Batch of 2 targets.
Target 1
Amino acid sequence: MRFIGLRLARGLLTLWFAVTVTFFLVRLLPGDPVLAVADPNMTEELRQKLLADFGLDRPLGVQYLDYLGQLLHGNLGMSFRQSVPVTTVLMERLPWTLILTISAMVVTIVLGIPLGVLAATRAKGWVDRVIQLTGVTAQSLFVPSVGVFLMYLLGVWLGWFPIGGAVDLDATGFGATLSMLHHLVLPCLSLVLIQLGGYVLTMRTTLIDALGEDYVSLAKAKGVRPGTVVWKHALRNALLPTTTIAGLQLGTLVGGAVLTETIYAYPGIGRAIYEAVGQLDFPVLQGAFVLLAAAVVVANLITDVAYGILDPRVRT
Amino acid sequence: MTVADLTPRQRTWSAFRRNPLGMVSGAVLLLLALVAVCAPLIAPFPEGYGADTLQPPSGAHWFGTDDIGQDVFAQVVWGTRVSMAVGVSASVLAIVIGLLIGVSAAYFRRLDTPLGVLVDLSLSLPVLPLMILVAALAGPSVRTLAVVIALFSWPEVARVVRSQALAIVPMPFVSAAKVVGGSSLWIVRKHLLPGVVPVVGVSVVLTTSRAVLAEAGLSFLGLGDPNSWSWGTILHKAQQSGSLASSWWTTLFPSVAILLLVLSTTLLSVAYNDARNHRSDT
């Protein structure tokens, strides 16, 4: 229990840090939020009214406390451009980003484990070399390039998958679900391709370490079948450090999702960020970051607690 | 001369030279740097409107033309400048900050906890959305991009440097330096930094490749310098005009350029690491 409490406290600290850093960045950087709401040839009177409307005329400390208070009520401020609460804008987008990132993560793990095992059990062989080199290459890929390549190959040229959007609007019932999955394939695959390398390489290293342990020699000496030794004995121990990588890669995953959603016009938070950049809608950008940071903190918390339950040694 | 007579540096270099992957990567990087420096001699700066729009690659336009008739080859050549300049300057800045913070955390024990917490917190946040926010606020320019990327890349360097420096601080020669009355600054400069620098070598390369990707990502989202070309900007224009899905050449060539730069830096660091690890020679 104490372990979960500590992790929870750390998550809250991270979140507070994210919120505070963004608040002060937004207020102190040259990009004057007032200039962003206001037209340059607007009268001074109107400018002051706008400032007051957005609460930008009060002392910085007061604005900060107010921002924190509003945040606790789930209020991220008003969008400069759309005159609707940022929370409303982002909450309709959040489910799509969650669908995309979670499905990408699941597919990555499902593909990554057998590939890691394959490389580790054939360490130094040519299969291993190919997997390693591919893994390093995959980590050097630029997400939009991968997205465009898949879009062109599987979407435009072969015509197997739709190249934009998240669902056909006229589909209903089961058809809508099918259409959703159909639209999900390309963006999800793009994310999987950039994530997979890291997982496979980590999986490979930890599994090679695990295969050198005494209990593996013992199991082999006892005459346990090689397949059972790898999959039932060594893999279980190798999976634990890989869980940590999953946590560390969350940031990359979120960044990748922003770029992928932009390419495929996928209506998630990332696409909202792209649109907000074009319109200089700072509250949306700020809110999107806070929301994504919160998602990463929650996901990290889940990984940490799961790790603690699986491996009591790390409960410190 | 036998292997034992060589200095560690010479041994690293001779091991490195025997790795074809490392040598090829080095050559590619040199070539890209040459293109970046000589861009004005290779192609005219792409601007204005051309008559041939969305032409596929041909003898006249090696990489084809975009939706307003500009030559994609010229864009990629000029993009090499900005992409490399931002990548290198951002990583140099990140390394300097990371070195300072990492070494201070390891040497001045009282600073370790607060700096460690700062690094941990920064590493657990999704960086790209944060960079987007800051770059949008600061206004797009080459300098903004370099500073913003450096600002959010140093924690990784600091972590690597700190763990390396922590192994050096308890060594007898550091205590000896303290006993003879050396100032902290002198000890850090003379004893800590030389021990940390080889690790930083790998870190520099990796930070550069990450910085190149970050620059491409930000430019792709429309946060690039509007007055210059970078590889991400070319992709951004293709995305905006919709030629992304119809004209493969507008995206393929800048993508290949990004891949070449990032992959060769990554492979170079792998080769350097292998060469430095003398145990694997036997």
Target 2
Amino acid sequence: MKTYIARKLLALPLIVLGVSLLVFLAIRMLPGDPARMMAGPEAPEAAVEAMRVRLGLGQPLFMQYFGFVVHAIQGDFGISIRSNLPVASEIANRFPYTFALALTSYAMAILIGVPAGMAAAVFRNRWPDQIVMLLAIAGASVANFWLALMAMNYFAVELHWLPLLGAGSWKHYILPTIALGTLPTALIARMTRSSMIEVLSQDFIRTARAKGLGSFAIYRKHALRNALIPIVTIVGLNFGSIMGGAVVTESVFNWPGIGRLLVDSVRYRDYPMIEGVTLLAVVSVVVVNFLAEMAIAAINPRIRLT
Amino acid sequence: MTAAEETLSEMDAPRSRTSIVMRWLLRRANLVLGAVLVGLIVIVAIFAPMIATAQPDAQDLMNTLSAPSAIHWFGTDNFGRDIFSRVVYGARISLLEVVISVGISCLVGVPLGLIAGTLGKRADQIIMWIMDILFAFPGIILAILLVSVLGASLFNMMLAIAIFSIPVYARLSRNVSLGLKEMEYVEAATALGASIWRVMFDHILRNSLGPIIVQSTLTAGTVVLAAASLSFLGLGAQPPTPEWGAMMSDGRNFLGVNVYLSLFPGLAVTVMVLGFNILGDGLRDLLDPRS
């Protein structure tokens, strides 16, 4: 286990380094003067000059990158062109909204996906299994923003049961959670089913039955423990797809998270903000993936041996 | 007649070619269903001018935001354009997105993976480091970063989607080539003096085609969803292109007035993605039964 953790831990800074390099290079590949781009089209010449010094544009590229990394580690991503506020503070204000939405979506995915996947495995090849699998493949195929629009149209516009846009009360969470949580729910249901089917065919289950243990006790005792692996895998390794999904879902619902901030920044060509949000989003995905891999290895010893 | 006798008589009876084909197809229902759905979209795309009831950009300002009717099967949008015809022509754009994005990512990712897997050592480490970096990005976020640099257009969006799909192919072909290069026939080819490139592209690539085809089918579904999402955000196809994501984006302003603007393009996306996903699952069962 220690070797496995050490190997993964060594790879982590290399990935973060590469991600920051890609974000750094992408913005500097823009046609025109990078200082003008980062300071904004309306910025006075003095501000552009100050940006030129800050970016170190007279220096070799690797020194510019070094400066970028040092600033990023200090939490300094520059000033937003659109709001004139520090990028870091705007991200700090928006991130809790995205985090809360990710949590409610995962809660929905676990509360619906695990029982559905278990039911499908227990009633394998019978109608409950077929219905769950049909819904799971449909859930994995549907565009989450379309689902969001349809739900908005029905529950908010026609029935007036739920608020249409924005964040505030618990009611504001329902529609965005359904839109963002559908994909992980489908994935958890599919994975829970396949891992349950594998468990139910094991010898120890037969032994448990032979000892006279009831079906319900078997599912509760053995199956729930095995459902942990799909939950951790989907929650951890699919955090990236949740972040990606949040970009679109937040834009549909005017949700004040970092996903909508990114889309708005692209529209306004707010490059310091694009740089900051992208970097933080990807680094958080890398870290969550790393933690998930560790948790999966701790639950399932077979993985760390491969 | 007992069950055993029935089975024996069935075995004795000469089976017609049709019944053999039917049995084969019935055993692979998901493959058939996926192929039918994808085939339907392909037919609609090819014969769009014959299927559409109007030109996709033809405006009828006297008949805007109308509900489905005998003349306009899916209703009309805010410019009086026929939604059915736009959805039909949209199939062409979605298929183009699939062909370009899957094609580029496959043509770049597969050779990279083959080189990494076959050469190993430093080449493997460097290529896979770059692939791990690309893989760390959520696809949509990488695409948004690239589109913000390249500019919002249909082609730039397809390129951005292709770039975030490259690591999938590189990882797949690397893993397959790692297994195949230990096979006796590959060792025999090397012993007979075949160059490393010939071994790579003539022996290993040819035998990796099954998993690559399966992956391409599944990636096609991801491409359709990503393209619709980016166009929905205004970062892909631009108006008046009848792209499904862009059409849904127009429709969001008319929720409560006319839901059909968003409903039908979204259904088309779902059918196409569902088709590719089911087809991919079916092909995997067929080409790689171990998985």
